[in-house]
Amino acid sequence: MPRSLPYHPFKIQNLKDTKYSAGYITAILEEKDPEPDLLEAALKDVFEAIGQPILSEEEAKQHLEKLDEVLSKKGSDAIYSLGEWLNALGLKLTVTVCESEQESPAEAAEPSEVTVG
């Protein structure tokens, strides 16, 4: 029987593209029934793909420790801390208008993003 290839190396290779990483995190955040552990796993995957190659071993260790701290925070502190954590990886936390909302032509022409960090 043919063996399948492991998925993790393929996923990490794709996550090296920061646009793919941003979409991956966005998809996790937009889940209808979110699983908190899934967000942590996704952030660690993104870190493995784009954080580890740009940081020293000590900086990488500190950045992962910071993630544990960020995920343990409550309220707006958590949001701002996550924004800072993502910025260090070259990503930003963004809020956009839901695509399911009906937009008038005037609204569609206006910017619809608010960025934290």
Write a structural description.
With 117 residues, this protein is mainly α. It has one domain. 61% of the residues lie in helices and 7% in strands. It contains six helices and two strands. The chain has helices spanning 7-15, 18-29, 36-51, 57-72, 75-87, 105-109, and strands at 93-96, 113-116. Strands 1-2 form a two-stranded antiparallel sheet. Helix 4 (57-72) runs antiparallel to helix 5. The longest helix has 16 residues, at 36-51. The radius of gyration is 17 Å and the shape is globular. It starts with 6 loop residues before the first helix and ends with a strand. The mean pLDDT is 85.
Q: What would the keywords be for this entry?
A:
single chain, 117 residues, mainly alpha, two-stranded antiparallel ribbon, 6 helices, 7% strand, globular
- Mean pLDDT across the residues is 85
Q: β content, as a range?
A: 5-15%
Largest sheet: 2 strands, antiparallel
Strand order of the largest sheet: 1-2
Task: Give the low-pLDDT segments.
Answer: none
What is the number of helical segments per DSSP (H or I, 4+ residues)? 6
* Range of helix content: 55-70%
Radius of gyration: 17 Å
Supply the number of structural domains.
1
Give the overall shape: globular
**Structural class of the helix and strand makeup?**
mainly alpha
